[in-house]
Automatic annotation (TrEMBL):
<dbReference type="InterPro" id="IPR004839">
    <property type="entry name" value="Aminotransferase_I/II_large"/>
</dbReference>
<dbReference type="GO" id="GO:0005739">
    <property type="term" value="C:mitochondrion"/>
</dbReference>
<dbReference type="GO" id="GO:0006533">
    <property type="term" value="P:L-aspartate catabolic process"/>
</dbReference>
<comment type="similarity">
    <text>Belongs to the class-I pyridoxal-phosphate-dependent aminotransferase family.</text>
</comment>
<dbReference type="InterPro" id="IPR015421">
    <property type="entry name" value="PyrdxlP-dep_Trfase_major"/>
</dbReference>
<feature type="domain" description="Aminotransferase class I/classII large">
    <location>
        <begin position="1"/>
        <end position="228"/>
    </location>
</feature>
<dbReference type="Pfam" id="PF00155">
    <property type="entry name" value="Aminotran_1_2"/>
</dbReference>
<dbReference type="InterPro" id="IPR004838">
    <property type="entry name" value="NHTrfase_class1_PyrdxlP-BS"/>
</dbReference>
<comment type="subunit">
    <text>Homodimer.</text>
</comment>
<keyword id="KW-0032">Aminotransferase</keyword>
<dbReference type="GO" id="GO:0004069">
    <property type="term" value="F:L-aspartate:2-oxoglutarate aminotransferase activity"/>
</dbReference>
<dbReference type="InterPro" id="IPR000796">
    <property type="entry name" value="Asp_trans"/>
</dbReference>
<keyword id="KW-0808">Transferase</keyword>
<dbReference type="InterPro" id="IPR015424">
    <property type="entry name" value="PyrdxlP-dep_Trfase"/>
</dbReference>
<dbReference type="GO" id="GO:0030170">
    <property type="term" value="F:pyridoxal phosphate binding"/>
</dbReference>
<protein>
    <recommendedName>
        <fullName>Aspartate aminotransferase</fullName>
        <ecNumber>2.6.1.1</ecNumber>
    </recommendedName>
</protein>
<keyword id="KW-0663">Pyridoxal phosphate</keyword>
Length: 233
């Protein structure tokens, strides 16, 4: 951040970093904020997994709220596709913090110019579902509980995968599986090992070694661990 040219634009994942599964700590976010401000950089936040990092949507919003509190005029691309189970509805929000009402007018006009040829008018069905959930106290409470349940399930699947690998006798340190957070995890497998997973065990994932923890269940974790053990040891 300090080495970048002045007034650069930085894209940050607000929480549950995809693909690494490694988030800055609150203290590190404070340091990042200070460095961005000192160099006059602009912050663009991508928040697609709010609630899936800690299980708490407020906790996962720390970075965004801290930057705004510190006077950054950020842009925020926010998705409800995953945390509301609305993947097919393409629902989210794009927010920009303006310096003043006049800048807000200029921003509004420019965003409309960009939006018009892209999709003109966004689909409203998913947006109305999200709005209903967020504005109804009972539904919002239920939703927050379900988000926490999903986050806890992901944490449990990470622990099960690590435990199964250790029980198989793997000599490798798999602690990174449980220290990472969110829907995805880096296994540390090479592209060649990932090819072997697909070819020999019908386990498919990206060649960089990333797997979707959300796709792991108590029913398939044993088979996954065995496949990883056979190609990695």
């Amino acid at each position: 951040i300090k080495a970048a040219p002045k007034n650069s634009i930085f894209l940050f994942h607000a929480c549950a970093h995809n693909p690494t599964g490694v988030d800055p700590t609150p203290e590190q976010w404070r340091e990042i904020s200070d460095a961005v401000k000192a160099a006059g950089h602009y912050s663009f936040f991508d928040m697609a997994y709010q609630g899936f990092a800690s299980g708490n949507t407020d906790t996962d919003a720390f970075a965004v709220r801290h930057f705004v509190k510190e006077g950054h005029n950020i842009a925020l691309a926010q998705s409800f596709a995953k945390n509301m189970g609305l993947y097919g509805e393409r629902v989210g929000a794009f927010s920009i913090v303006a310096q003043d009402p006049e800048e807000r007018k200029r921003l509004d006009s420019q965003v409309k110019i960009l939006v018009r040829p892209l999709y003109s008018n966004p689909p409203v069905h998913g947006a109305r579902i999200a709005s209903t959930i967020l504005n109804d106290a009972a539904l919002n409470k239920q939703w927050l509980g379900e988000v926490k349940g999903m986050a806890d399930r992901i944490i449990t699947m990470r622990a099960l995968l690590k435990d199964n690998l250790e029980k198989l006798g793997s000599a490798h340190d798999w602690s990174h599986i449980t220290s990472q957070i969110g829907m995805f995890a880096y296994t540390g497998l090479t592209p060649q090992q990932m090819d072997a997973l697909a070819k020999d065990h019908s386990v498919y994932a990206t060649k960089d070694g990333r797997i979707s923890v959300a796709g792991i269940t108590s029913g398939n974790v044993g088979r996954l661990a065995e496949a990883i053990y056979k190609v990695k040891g």
